[in-house]
Amino acid sequence: MGQSMRSIHDNLQAVRGRIAHAATAAGRDPLSVTLLAVSKTHPAALVEQALAAGQRSFGENYVQEAIEKMDALAGRSIEWHLVGPLQSNKTRLVAARFDWVHAVESEKVARRLSEQRPAGAAPLNVLIQVNVSGETSKSGAAPGEVAGLAAAISSLPNLKLRGLMAIPEPGAARARFRDVKDLFEKLKAEFNLDTVSMGMSDDLDAAIAEGSTMVRIGTAIFGAREKIRPAA
């Protein structure tokens, strides 16, 4: 069952409190961390409730599901982020409808997004997904490939490279978060980066301690997933 409006509000307040506590403990300004509410598999009605509680940035994994919500909430002030893997056959829809893409891992996909961004639209904000764990089952560019990919993306006219994203394997997240932040710092000045997207409901505190500027929170806001959907 979905969360009630009251509990969505309370959950957002609790997550914001966790973010503020973690940032303060790390000697950081809580305002330096953006809360991205991951609404994948949850209905537009729950996004509406989060909007009423002051949340404006939402993350989705599945393109078609996201577009249905965008249409249902047309006219609302929402910043839409694609946080799941991006198939090359979905780039046209993503380039047309999203504000951010978190999981760019190849120059091919980046080039398609730039070419397919509608004329007159603001540049699409993109993050390079880093496979910091080296797991063959995980998406993302190897750390050694990131600088070259960053240079390629930065040359594309309709994209704005904002930084890095990572999903470390459980059990070693703290060290992997540190690795991502170290890589970000090496590239930050050259590419004018400002965003490190890492940390979810279970590990946002460690991610913020290691320098995350954007945490992707689903379960702690919306509860368990409504249903499992196929990747799309």
Structural description of this entry:
This protein has one domain (5-24, 32-222): Alanine racemase (TIM Barrel), CATH 3.20.20.10. The two termini are 24 Å apart. By secondary structure, the protein is α/β, with parallel strands linked by helices. The longest helix has 21 residues, at 5-25. The mean pLDDT is 92. Helix 1 (5-25) packs across helix 2 (44-52) and helix 4 (91-97) crosses helix 5. The radius of gyration is 17 Å and the shape is globular. An eight-stranded parallel sheet has the order 7-6-5-4-3-2-1-8. It is built from nine helices and eight strands.
What strand order characterises the main sheet? 7-6-5-4-3-2-1-8
Shape: globular
Q: Mind summarizing the main beta sheet?
A: 8 strands, parallel
What radius of gyration results from the CA coordinates?
17 Å
Outline the fold blueprint.
Layout lengths: L4 H21 L8 E5 L5 H9 L4 E4 L2 H10 L6 E4 L8 H7 L2 E5 L2 H10 L7 E6 L16 H9 L4 E7 L7 H19 L3 E3 L6 H6 L4 E4 L1 H4 L10
Parallel strand pairs: 1-2, 1-8, 2-3, 3-4, 4-5, 5-6, 6-7
Characterize this entry briefly.
With 232 residues, the chain is α/β, with parallel strands linked by helices. Helices cover 41% and strands 16% of the residues.
List keywords for this structure.
TIM Barrel, 9 helices, single chain, alpha/beta, 232 residues, eight-stranded parallel β-sheet
